[in-house]
Specification:
Radius of gyration: 22 Å
Helix content: 40-55%
Shape: flat
Number of strands: 5
Strand order of the largest sheet: 2-3-4
Structural class: mainly alpha
Oligomer: single chain
Distance between the termini: 42 Å
Order of helices and strands: HHHHHHHHHEEHEEHHHE
């Protein structure tokens, strides 16, 4: 049993070194002498490109659909010097690295295109999706879901984003992935979208409004449910329904020991 645990610990350490660039250059890793540093670095960079290629292709799929108009493919950023410069500090799967990669993608795309008036909104949406998906997650259920008992103070889950957009993107997104000749257009009307992630890593998007945005703004893990209702201008029943929906999406949990 001891040998088996030791083998597993060794595998975990190698995987961590491949995914975590700062750890890979640390004395703690180098002193172990488990791999040739040059080969390790080369393979780690190959994995990083593959890891973020998959995420860019998935979360920027609408920009990819528009590439025949814009002439810009989001995944091309992986060959840029700016992406290489990011790698010495990259931790695969971390929200900080995902945020940095998403910013690079957005910076590589056109700032505007008269044929796609909603382009800026679209890029903000895709940037949020890639960023929100990142971060720690639970691989198995170890107990009741956050907020399952409704106890404690409501708290917004880290990474949750509310996007205030000038165009109604949900109308146009499915159209972009279907065959089209003329660029599909989004209605020009104010739209708020909530982007959240469950603790298991599932990203969800839902239309929202000022009341829900107010609840999220006030849900700091310190205010009680009653205080939250007063601050958001909702009666207890409305707030209970709202919180239930937010917990289901992964946008809100309940702080314990409040």
């Amino acid at each position: 049993m001891t040998e088996r645990r030791s083998d597993r610990a060794l595998q975990d350490d190698v995987i961590r070194a491949l995914a975590d660039a700062p750890y890979r250059t640390s004395a703690a890793w180098r002193e172990r002498g488990l791999a040739d540093p040059e080969r390790m670095e080369r393979y780690a960079r190959f994995l990083a490109r593959h890891f973020y290629y998959e995420r860019i292709v998935h979360f920027f799929k609408y920009s990819r659909a528009l590439a025949r108009v814009t002439g810009r493919w989001p995944e091309a950023v992986l060959q840029h010097a700016a992406f290489d410069a990011l790698l010495p500090g990259a931790v695969l799967g971390s929200r900080d690295t995902a945020r940095a990669v998403a910013r690079l993608v957005v910076a590589s795309m056109p700032e505007e295109d008269a044929r796609i008036p909603y382009l800026a909104d679209l890029l903000r949406y895709e940037q949020a999706m890639l960023t929100v998906e990142a971060g720690p997650r639970a691989w198995r259920d170890a107990g009741p879901r956050d907020g399952g008992s409704g106890s404690g103070a409501p708290a917004i889950v880290a990474g949750t984003v509310v996007l205030a957009l000038a165009y109604d993107l949900p109308v146009v997104l499915p159209q972009l992935l279907r065959p089209w000749v003329d660029v599909p257009q989004a209605p020009a009307r104010s739209t708020q979208l909530l982007v959240a992630r469950s603790r298991h890593g599932r990203v969800a998007v839902a239309r929202t409004d000022d009341a829900v945005a107010a609840v999220l703004d006030l849900a700091d893990g310190k205010r009680s449910v009653a205080e939250l209702a007063r601050g958001a201008g909702l009666d207890p029943a409305q707030l209970a329904t709202t919180l239930h929906g937010l917990v289901e999406l992964g946008a809100v949990g309940f702080a314990t020991g409040s």
